[in-house]
């Protein structure tokens, strides 16, 4: 969980220390998909500061910025933040949020084993 309080998702504000450590260990510019309020959002690690100190925060990538901006209306409220399940490809998880017209019980049954 975290509280949305700005344009970036800061490692120090996360309750999940494992996730916070993973963010601190990323290189600047490295991408990561997270489930924020159960929605997949693709983030990128922010650039280090001018003095060389790491910026331990993530900002949303371009196409996911509107999703993050919509969550900004919930400033001050706690929201869930988690890594997606390991069995799911992050790219496919990201696409799933944008291709809802194919999310039916019939499609699940037909393509479940693929």
What would you note in describing this structure?
25% of the residues lie in helices and 22% in strands. It has 114 residues and is of the alpha+beta class. Strands 2-5-4-3-7 form a 5-stranded antiparallel sheet, sandwiched between helices. Strand 3 (31-36) and strand 4 form a beta hairpin.
Mean pLDDT: 85
| Shape, principal axes of CA atoms | globular
Helical content (DSSP H or I, runs of 4+): 25-40%
* N- and C-termini, Cα separation: 33 Å
Structural class: alpha+beta
Number of strands: 7
Radius of gyration: 15 Å
Main β sheet profile:
5 strands, antiparallel
| Relative strand content | 15-25%
Ranges with pLDDT <50 over ≥5 residues?
none
For the biggest β-sheet, the strand order reads: 2-5-4-3-7
Total helices: the number is: 4
From N to C, what is the helix and strand string?
EEHEEEHEEHH
List the helices and strands and how they pair.
Elements: E1 2-3, E2 9-10, H1 17-24, E3 31-36, E4 39-45, E5 57-60, H2 65-71, E6 78-79, E7 81-82, H3 90-96, H4 105-111
Antiparallel strand pairs: 1-6, 2-5, 3-4, 3-7, 4-5
Features:
7 strands; globular; 114 residues; alpha+beta; two-stranded antiparallel ribbon
């Amino acid at each position: 969980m975290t509280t949305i309080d700005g344009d970036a998702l800061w490692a120090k504000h996360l309750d999940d220390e494992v996730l916070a450590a993973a963010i601190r260990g990323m290189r600047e510019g490295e991408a990561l998909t997270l489930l924020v309020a159960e929605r997949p959002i693709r983030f990128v690690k922010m650039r280090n500061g001018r003095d060389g100190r790491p910026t331990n925060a993530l900002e949303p990538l371009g196409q996911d910025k509107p999703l993050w901006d919509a969550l900004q209306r919930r400033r001050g409220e706690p929201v869930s933040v988690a890594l997606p399940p390991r069995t799911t490809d992050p790219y496919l998880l990201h696409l799933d949020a944008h291709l809802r017209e194919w999310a039916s019980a019939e499609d699940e049954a037909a393509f479940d084993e693929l």
